[in-house]
Amino acid sequence: MLQNRKEKNKKMNKMKYLVNMLIAYILYPFKKNSFKKKKIWIVGGNAGELYVDNGRAMYEYLRAKEGIEEYWVINKNSKSAQKIPGKKLIKGSIKSYLYFMNSEVVLFSHSISADIVPYLFVVPLLKRFHKKVFKVFLNHGTVGFKVNHPMNKKTQKIAQDIVKSYDLNICDSNFEKNIKTKVWWQIPENTAVITGYPRYDKLYNVKSSQKEILFMPTWRNWIKSENLKIEDTDYFKNITNLITDPKLNEFLKKNNIKFNIYIHQLMQDYLKNFDNIELSENVKILPADAEITQELEKSEILITDYSSVAYDFYYLNKPIIFFQFDKDEYDKKVGSYVKNKDLFGIQVKSVEKCVENIIKISENNFNYDKNLIEKFEKLQPKFLKYTDKKNCDRVYTEIIKHLKNK
Q1: Any bridge partners for residue 42, and if so which?
Q2: 344, 231 contact by CB (below 8 A)
Q3: What angle do CA 219, 325, 210 make, to 5 degrees?
Q4: For residue 48, what pLDDT is reported?
Q5: Residues 270-281: tens digit of each pLDDT
Q6: What's the pLDDT score for residue 152?
Q7: DSSP conformation letters of 261-282
């Protein structure tokens, strides 16, 4: 029933977006002069729901640039709207389509359709505006742990075409650039630029008397596509077994360590399924709108599986445990470009080994042993070319350079 309601709302939103898009198109010639001397840059991300990530870092960077009129695109009922400083556009509104048609640059982290202008790319009359504006794909996270698979085979060709149409595609390293240009979407070589991700500029090590550990498992697309009952999955069982493990909880309590879990945005529909799990006072499930950058900064250890957030923690030179309990299934259904030998953290496949390594690292003043520190330091340039807090500068410089040549 819930799924039917979501499908119905999706269809209604699509119709509303198309109507608003056409109204904006009719208004365009009459409003064109009022935009003539404006340099409008539009930023968005996370399908208009959250104010986070690379989009947020670039938006806040652009606010200090003179001559640019920057706007953030947000969903009408998003709880994150109050967090956004400056000017906002409501995604799918007449105004947002009109401003897009008159914009110079748009920057987004997921896709231009999901974050900025729904469906405009596929409407014949209006596709010219998509070609006209300068498009910067900031990415949600580094491409490495997830091999590109179409989420919907029916729209695969459209998705490939839209990604290839972007004017700039931000990369962390030559390793990632090669994936994007030669393996992933096979995007044009001249559009892939190595700048580092903007959000890393916001990352700092925060020292606190309260020690914390962060657990961020990523999503499993097959749980939804195969209509699996989440409580029956290895995903649910391993997460709950870890956060309720008696040995771990005893250690956390004894050492006054907080253990925070953030369930991936795309798995938030299942958050209520965790409500029946009895958690100790040292364990907490974070809300969907948690400030992940702050959580990373103050955490001593990151536990993840295949999430690109591992690169953020690697940037901070803090220990990572890759809890890959379903590695064989994941390799079969998703796959990774990062080989086991290049994994920049400790790989474990069971709750017992995960707990063992949490305790070992914690008791070593939240550090790996010396050999692992040296190994991961040598490996870092392969995945993170820049660690100088100037990624936003490089992205902006590349945009200006490409605008002059366009």
Answers
A1: 71, 106
A2: no
A3: 75
A4: 94
A5: 667 777 788 999
A6: 62
A7: E---GGGGGGGGGGTTS---TT
pLDDT at 2: 45
Q: Which residues pair with 135 in a beta bridge?
A: 106
Rg (CA), the chain: 22
Give the C-alpha separation, 65 to 68, whole Å.
Answer: 6
pLDDT band for position 155 (cuts 50, 70, 90): low
Residues 6+ apart with CB under 8 A from 2: none
Question: Which own/partner contact pairs does 74-81 have at CB distance under 8 Å and 24+ positions apart?
Answer: 74/44, 74/48, 74/49, 75/47, 75/48, 75/49, 78/48, 78/49, 78/50, 79/289, 80/49, 80/50, 80/51, 80/52, 80/289, 81/51
What angle, 0 to 180 degrees and rounded to 10, lies between the N-to-C axes of helices 246-254 and 351-363? 20
Q: Which residues contact 366 (CB under 8 A, 6 or more apart)?
A: 211, 300, 301, 318, 319
Cα separation, 6 vs 235, in Å, equals: 24
DSSP per-residue string spanning 113-166: HHHTSTTGGG-GGGHHHHHHSEEEE--SS-SSSS----S-GGGHHHHHHHHHT-
> What mean pLDDT, rounded, does the chain reach?
92
Question: Residue 178: which of 317, 338, 333 has the closest Cα?
Answer: 338
Residue 135 phi/psi, 5-degree rounding, is: -110, 125
Query: Is residue 335 scored above 70 in pLDDT?
Result: yes
The owner of tokens 């493990």 is 245
Looking at the DSSP bridge assignments, the partners of residue 303 are 215, 321
Locate tokens 């030559």: which residue? 174
Predicted local confidence at residue 345, as pLDDT: 98
- Helix 391-405 to helix 53-62 angle (10° resolution) is 70
If you average pLDDT over residues 293-307, what whole number do you get?
Answer: 95
| 150: pLDDT strictly greater than 70 | no
Distance CA 402, CA 406 (A): 6
CB-CB contact of 346 with 322 (8 Å): yes
Q: pLDDT digits over 197-217, tens only?
A: 999 999 998 888 899 999 999
Q: What is the DSSP letter of 248?
A: H
The mean pLDDT of 109-113, rounded to a whole number, is 94
**DSSP summary character for residue 95:** H
pLDDT of residue 307: 94
